[in-house]
Amino acid sequence: MPELPEVETIRKTLKKLALNKTIENTTVSWPKIIKNPFEVEQFVDALKGETIVDVGRRGKFLIIYTENFALVSHLRMEGKYGLYPKHEPPEKHTHVIFHFTDDTELRYRDVRKFGTMHLYNKGDEFIRGPLIGLGPEPFSEEFTPAYLKLKLEKTTRKIKTVLLDQTVFVGLGNIYVDEALFRAEIHPERHASTLTETEIVRLHQEIVATLGEAVKKGGSTIRSYVNTQGEIGMFQLELYAYGRKGEDCKRCGTMLEKTKVGGRGTHFCPTCQRL
What we know:
Layout: H1 4-18, E1 23-28, E2 34-36, H2 40-47, E3 52-58, E4 61-66, E5 69-74, E6 80-85, E7 94-100, E8 104-109, E9 116-121, H3 145-152, H4 159-164, H5 174-184, H6 197-216, E10 257-261, E11 264-268
Parallel strand pairs: 2-9
Antiparallel strand pairs: 1-7, 3-4, 4-5, 5-9, 6-8, 7-8, 10-11
Helix pairs in contact: 1-6, 3-6, 5-6
């Protein structure tokens, strides 16, 4: 699933490709993707004649803004956007097509059909699902070591489980949780409340640094992620832990291990991240 760095990269490229384009019509071939409004016809009618004025992001969600609406899009496992000329036949698994007045089309393709779209009046997107209740952005002023300490000190959950919780703060998924914990030298199965203040400060620094570096590299291409122009992310070349089971730790040389935490595959170094 694309995490914050991948979605931020998609946001930037989608903004370059689709800004100021006007929607002539919309084709929805898999109605279950549209979660709001419940009637697909309402979704299609609302967007007729609307011009894309901005593309935003909240955590792992894209927000495509038109003059009057906010389209909240979650890519889930396999969702991809691409801009195509009108005459080019759509690829298999293309489920939503925004037809622009300049004879180009923004197409949403999703092999697994897990992606979702919610259309709201502009201004309502943050007080309705799925964005309501999300925690702060990791690059925001609100996300401080003190805030993280407050969230960790009273929970009985394991640290990896807490960091995956989007109500605590947004943007981290399986890849970057493993990376941040490795860099901070914290075992993923540590109970969050046992972290010292020094460890929390270090973890906070590594979360921000890891995500910042990944954004600069365009995200990580693990399996099928590409941005809206078909370009792969390059941060996977920088990974220390995720996906490296059985390989030598880049820090100490110990063989990396894999376990499950909260049902998620978890990579760690048994020497650098002692439990």
